[in-house]
Specification:
Blueprint: E1 2-6, E2 15-19, E3 29-39, H1 41-48, E4 62-63, E5 67-75, E6 87-91, E7 104-108, E8 112-114, H2 121-126, H3 128-141, E9 149-153, H4 158-169, E10 173-178, H5 183-188, E11 193-196, E12 209-214, E13 228-236, H6 241-256, E14 263-266, H7 273-284, E15 292-297, H8 301-309, E16 316-320
Helix pairs in contact: 3-4
The chain binds NADP nicotinamide-adenine-dinucleotide phosphate.
Length: 327
């Protein structure tokens, strides 16, 4: 099968589309013929060798890509809830291997969900990592209430476009932060207010937001303190020594002194099939949409990575693995 593989880490010239054997599956796994996959920054961070979760991914050579949508072609002996022919989508767990930028992927059955017929493979492949990051932040980690206000910094990217819509579907007031050229798109996603970061510094606002969801990691718990209300939460998607320390310190403080103090939280997305289904259902009933920036062929995956690395994607970058997607 055709797959996008790295044999060594690097910025350029290490990602090759080559023929490799179709993976063999274990008892709890399924084999999926991939129709579409989508790019996340962690794909190229892994390519460069600087991905924080690198040690959990199998040693090189590695097939990149964690998010996909496709059709099951084989099921392991213990797989009870899926059958050959089911169309499914999902995100490879951080442990083991990636492998979505390939004609076939093997994945544990407890990491996938059925794809509703009403949504396309491109829309489904866009969801997993970005959509679940925002879903889990809003519904679990920050426990955003419908009466609350959330500010989303990085609102026009993959994680942010789902964040704006999931928070709105939940009933919350949403303030989106993006560049001037993306204001119109964030308004179309139904954000209540949109701030151009070149003209407005949200950190200067006084006690305005219940949640600051810093998707792009350009703020910090200290700098966001002033703009958070009492009991507010600063959520970052960026796992590094500083954010892990701040989130742990904040969690311990909340145990010792529960109450109205401000929290720092770090989201680490997990593959949860129920969350995939919930997001797909929201898309199916027209409450949210997968914002697709562009679609690249598997052979042109380096161009997709180059675009993602520019940090200028509007929504998600999709890879047409089977060559069958409607653009
Ligand atoms: N912890 C986790 O579990 C987890 C899960 C998923 C993602 N992440 C991380 O979350 C981050 C975002 O991921 P993503 O998929 O959303 O990335 P992305 O789609 O590539 O983000 C691109 C967006 O970033 C925006 N942006 C660039 N500079 C900005 C700035 N200074 N202020 C505000 N927005 C800015 C751009 O908007 P403009 O063009 O309008 O500037 C663009 O729309 C990545 O670092 C990723 O690794 C973490």
């Amino acid at each position: 099968m055709k797959a996008a593989v790295i044999h060594s880490y690097g910025r350029h010239g290490v990602l090759h589309v080559e023929d490799i054997p179709v993976p063999s599956i274990g008892h709890n796994e399924v084999l999926v013929k991939v129709e579409a996959a989508s790019v996340n920054p962690r794909d190229w961070l892994l390519m460069r060798g600087v991905y924080q979760g690198k040690r959990f991914v199998e040693p090189l050579p590695a097939t990149l890509g964690s998010d996909f949508s496709g059709t099951i072609t084989a099921c392991g002996a213990n797989v009870k809830h899926f059958k050959v022919g089911d169309t499914v989508f999902g995100m490879q767990p951080l442990k083991g291997q990636f492998g979505a930028f390939a004609e076939y992927i093997k994945i544990r059955a407890n990491a996938i969900a059925l794809k509703p017929e009403t949504i396309s493979h491109a829309d489904a492949a866009a969801i997993p990592c970005a959509g679940m990051t925002s879903y889990q932040t809003i519904h679990r980690l920050a426990q955003l209430k419908p009466s609350e206000t959330i500010l989303i910094n990085g609102a026009s990217g993959g994680v942010g476009t789902y964040g704006v819509q999931i928070a709105k579907a939940h009933g919350a007031k949403v303030v989106a932060v993006c560049s001037g050229k993306n204001i119109k798109m964030c308004k179309q996603l139904d954000a209540d207010e949109v701030l151009d970061y070149a003209e407005n510094n949200f950190e200067e606002y006084e006690a305005t937001f219940d949640v600051v969801y810093d998707v792009i990691g350009r703020s910090s718990p200290r700098r966001a303190t002033k703009c958070l209300k009492a009991g507010g939460r600063y959520v970052t998607t960026i796992p590094n020594a500083k954010t892990v320390f701040e989130a742990t310190k904040s969690w311990v403080a909340s145990l010792i002194m529960p109450g109205k103090h401000k929290r720092t939280q770090l989201i680490v997305v997990k593959p949860v099939p129920e969350d995939l289904t919930a997001i797909a259902d929201l898309i199916g009933c027209g409450k949210i949409t997968s914002v697709i920036d562009s679609i690249y062929t598997l052979d042109d995956i380096q161009s997709a990575f180059d675009h993602s690395q520019s940090w200028r994607a509007k929504g998600k970058i999709v890879i047409d693995v089977s060559g069958q997607l409607q653009a």
